[in-house]
Amino acid sequence: MFSYYMPTRILVGENVVRNNASAFALGRKAIIVTGRSSAQKCGALNDVTDALNKIGVSYDVYDKIENNPTVECAYYGGRFAKDHGADFIIGIGGGSPMDASKAIAVYAVNDIEPMQIFDGNFVNKPLPIIAVPTTAGTGSEVTPYSILTLTKEQTKRNFTCEDCFPKIAFLDGRYTVKLPIQVARNTAVDAMCHAIEGYLNNRATAASDYIALETLRLIGECLPALKSGDFSVPICEKLLFAASLGGIVISQAGTTIVHSMGYQLTFFKDIPHGMANGMLIGAFLDWCGDVCGEKIARVVEAIGLSSVCEFKELMKKLLVNESLFTDEEIEAYLKISMNAKLASAPKTVTIDGERDIYRKSLL
What we know:
This protein is α/β, with parallel strands linked by helices and about 375 residues long. It has helices at about 40, 45-55, 70-85, 95-105, 180-200, 205-220, 225-230, 235-255, 255-270, 275-305, 310-320, 325-335, 350-360; strands spanning about 10, 30-35, 60, 90-95, 130-135, 145-150, 155-160, 170. It contains 13 helices and 8 strands. The N and C termini lie far apart (about 40 Å).
């Protein structure tokens, strides 16, 4: 027995925004949520504003989203949307702007304090959201999750609301073809981790398993480009689609301890999210191999590899990080990560188990 729910309409292809301008008619006034410059540089922002102008929808731009957006950043974005009379939100960028868009959509129509967003009890439904990803990793364009940074708690936390599923996601490989090579690798690894964690998750279903293996197969086909840095629009489109499939996987099954442990590397060491996950995923596979051996073998096969050892070598080639760690830092990370929800893990999580994953990955 399982359920499957995926309400997001996905449109894929070159110039998909310009060719589907009418799909942006979700209201009369949009707030475009993005970072400082990346959406403009890749052409996505211009395509979206041209589409809005074409159909006569007015808009304002909230371009204050930083990497790993804080609760406060999203809260002020919600006030901005409310003050400007927005009736829908358009998130353009990587996971940070898209996650922030969901929180902004909630804050814009609910009179709540910043931290109350994690309660998940909203009097009013969030504003409708359109997502235009400009990196191929998080899959946020097809999930109900928003991950926000909690500065005082020194970690990240997510809230989920079915009404935060974007209504439409536009995937255009032109927006990612000029990404810096390490960003492309980090985000692809993030998508890969979504598929693996969802596949090995206690909440996995027959549907999510099928999609997870297809996600890994598609990324495996893109490994030559990820290694060489020779990207074409079709390859980038395939990676974007794979990232969305990975997002669909975690929408059904969720992630597991790799993500909750990786948050500490991002917060304390400023290691990009996908890279942090990739640094831990190999040791995670070793940790749960005694209970997930057959499924791990299918993971490796789907990617086009022959063993977990080969997979770990691939992670080392794709992820170059020279951060140094101490035992004291690992113990500090454990105090935070062990407070996460651990029921999704494929076996019982202990502090010794997490310590072993950290130590094998970082020391």
